[in-house]
């Protein structure tokens, strides 16, 4: 498994497909074997994974795996303790209440790099910084959470996923670094990447998630359920035509064959 860390700059699309208006991942990484795991919105910055393992994205975004993602967020206004408590309890959004977050008010980080373009400065409106940790992966979740408690996000930087720390790696915007997965406990329990399955196994409501059902016979051997298609059967398995005993062989010559012209 190969994992590359990228510090995604502001105004960069989380995709490899070229775009006329914006830079993309392909402007920073030239490796066709890598795919994006843990995307960031165009107006967000910071840590993203690039990997050749197809299941990594689902693994790190599944709340059951408790892979907390850490964000340093600049908000409009002076973030209050009441707002922090709301984040810690869960915030009601349009797609449901969020899981409890870890949230603390912080000073502006010393390591902070300049953003291009910078956040618009307004002398009449103060700003503050908060560190938020979540283990979910909803669309624009952190921005919606801060807005829901009354403090719109002005700048958002993802600094950590699990034990991977962008600040410790000292990556500047646009820089990449390949890491050794075995050195990090976050990647030790990732399930093996499953091989491609045919579209004949389509996931259905209440089904088996795209896998063929397997049942055991009385003797312990495995038997796959479902009916074989006719082209999957041996000659001995193909159904026989039932007749009433009066069917006669077709004695007529095939049309177009064996017939002379008058």
UniProtKB/TrEMBL annotation:
Q: Which SUPFAM superfamilies match?
A: Pseudouridine synthase
Q: Which InterPro entries match?
A: PsdUridine_s_RsuA/RluB/E/F_cat, PsdUridine_synth_cat_dom_sf, PsdUridine_synth_RsuA/RluA, PsdUridine_synth_RsuA/RluB/E/F, PsdUridine_synth_RsuA/RluB_CS, RsuA_PseudoU_synthase, TruA/RsuA/RluB/E/F_N
> Positions of the region Disordered?
195-262
Pfam families on file: PseudoU_synth_2 (PF00849)
Record carries keyword Aminoacyl-tRNA synthetase: no
Write out the GO biological process terms: pseudouridine synthesis; rRNA processing
* Pseudouridine synthase RsuA/RluA-like domain ranges (all copies): 3-148
> In the Enzyme Commission scheme, what number(s) does this protein have?
5.4.99.-
Q: Name one GO molecular function term.
A: catalytic activity, acting on RNA
Keywords of this entry: Isomerase
Output the superkingdom of the source species. Bacteria
Q: By what name is this protein known?
A: Pseudouridine synthase
What is the source species? Acinetobacter lanii
Lineage start: Bacteria, Pseudomonadati, Pseudomonadota, Gammaproteobacteria, Moraxellales
């Amino acid at each position: 498994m190969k994992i590359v860390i990228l510090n995604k700059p502001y105004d960069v699309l989380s995709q490899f497909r070229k775009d006329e208006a914006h830079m993309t991942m392909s402007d920073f990484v030239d490796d066709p074997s890598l795919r994006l795991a843990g995307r960031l919105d165009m107006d967000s910055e910071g840590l993203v994974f690039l990997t050749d393992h197809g299941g990594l994205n689902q693994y790190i975004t599944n709340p059951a795996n408790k892979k907390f993602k850490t964000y340093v967020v600049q908000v409009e206004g002076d973030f209050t303790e009441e707002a922090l408590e709301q984040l810690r309890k869960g915030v009601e959004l349009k797609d449901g209440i969020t899981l409890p977050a870890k949230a603390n008010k912080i000073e502006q980080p010393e390591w902070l790099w300049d953003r291009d373009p910078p956040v618009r400065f307004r002398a009449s409106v103060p700003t503050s910084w908060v560190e938020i940790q979540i283990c979910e992966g909803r669309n624009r979740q952190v921005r919606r959470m801060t807005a829901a408690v009354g403090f719109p996000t002005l700048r958002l930087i993802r600094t950590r996923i699990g034990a991977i720390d962008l600040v410790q790696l000292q990556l500047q915007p646009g820089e990449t670094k390949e890491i050794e997965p075995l050195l990090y406990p976050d990647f030790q329990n990732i399930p093996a990447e499953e091989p491609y399955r045919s579209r004949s196994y389509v996931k259905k409501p209440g089904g088996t998630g795209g896998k063929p059902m397997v049942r055991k016979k009385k003797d312990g051997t495995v038997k796959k359920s479902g009916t074989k298609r006719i082209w999957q059967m041996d000659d001995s398995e193909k159904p026989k035509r039932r007749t009433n005993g009066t069917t006669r062989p077709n004695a007529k010559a095939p049309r177009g064959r064996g017939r002379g012209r008058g």
